[in-house]
Amino acid sequence: MGNLKNNIDHYMKLKGIKMYSHLLVNIAHELGIKGQDAYQFANKEKSNFSKMLKDERPLKYEFIIPLEKIFGVSLARLLDEDAYKLPTEKDNVPFNKGFRYYAYLDDPKLYKEEFDLLLTKDGKSILTQTDEFGKTFLDYVVEYHSVNGIRYLHEEYGIKLKWYHNQFEFKKDSGMTWINFENCIEFARLVASMNDAALFNDIYDSYNMFFSNGYYASNDTIFCRSEYLEIILDNDALFHSIFERRPYEYVLAGSRVKREKQVNSIIYYLINPIINNCLRYALEHLDKYKHRAINVLKFGIKHNTEILNEVGADTYCICNELGGVISSGRTDWFSCDVDDIAVYVDIKVNDEEINALIEQLPKFKKIY
Length: 368
What we know:
Layout: H1 4-15, H2 20-30, H3 35-53, H4 61-71, H5 75-79, H6 98-105, H7 108-113, H8 137-143, H9 147-157, E1 160-162, E2 167-171, E3 176-180, H10 184-193, H11 197-203, H12 206-213, H13 226-233, H14 236-241, E4 246-251, E5 265-270, H15 275-284, H16 286-311, E6 316-318, E7 324-327, E8 340-341, H17 352-360, E9 365-366
Parallel strand pairs: 6-9
Antiparallel strand pairs: 1-2, 2-3, 4-5, 6-7, 7-8
Helix pairs in contact: 2-3, 2-4, 10-13, 13-15, 15-16, 16-17
């Protein structure tokens, strides 16, 4: 808990609470324990509470809400006085049990039984709420490493990052919710720590980046940021997943792709479109990622050869900066099928072993 004792002492002084036994009586009242029972509760919990303050045992979950109400601050502020760099006030700030409580407990049962029932006054989901510190549920998921919260959001809400705006999209039953979230990288690190490549790739869907805008991909997107590429390169499960050639259903919506045929979706078979971003970053940082660059280039030699053998040499070309390959007779990216992703290199390196592999890499003509 770190500075929990010092912070508890600080807030007790602000509130005029002189002894821990008095604080425990107040906690009992918040828990609905009245009269003499409250004093018996305080006497019973005194030893345990002392151990909590000494970091000898964790803070009891049932104490979280009472402490927040009594002191008028969030749990994060109790654990770390500098959590939000805001001045402390003697009077209570507006209190909201909400999402930080559930993120801290990270109890799958509570998520399913209670969390989804919490609504703001305007009827919007709790996911759109912010607390008195301007924090959302996603902020607290990151802060408390709430991996069960991530699974809940994935299973119940279909959480997915939409690359163009770096916003999260949530779908449940009907309708859609968008959340602006500035902490995408830390959230990605947390999801990656779960060692579930399928879950990670579904939330951080780089296929959507590829089919939504292709070569219009901007360096502002998370899929082009060095921190994100390092997450993939540093995680064996995520790194090896980019080589898998798998079906991907792209829902057309308002896209120009095949709009004239009134097709609702198209299924493509291809490797992960982020592979060339990973290769480019590895080549730029060979001191750390040479082994990853070698892995991608060796895969690319085999993979590119298979593409060429399927259709014959020089009949395919690269149509965008992500390595998408199409029939060379087509020049309109938005009106044609994308058959796969080719591995390619567009930078020079000073390494004989790497250059030898690049030389072996089958090349495609480019039309962008």
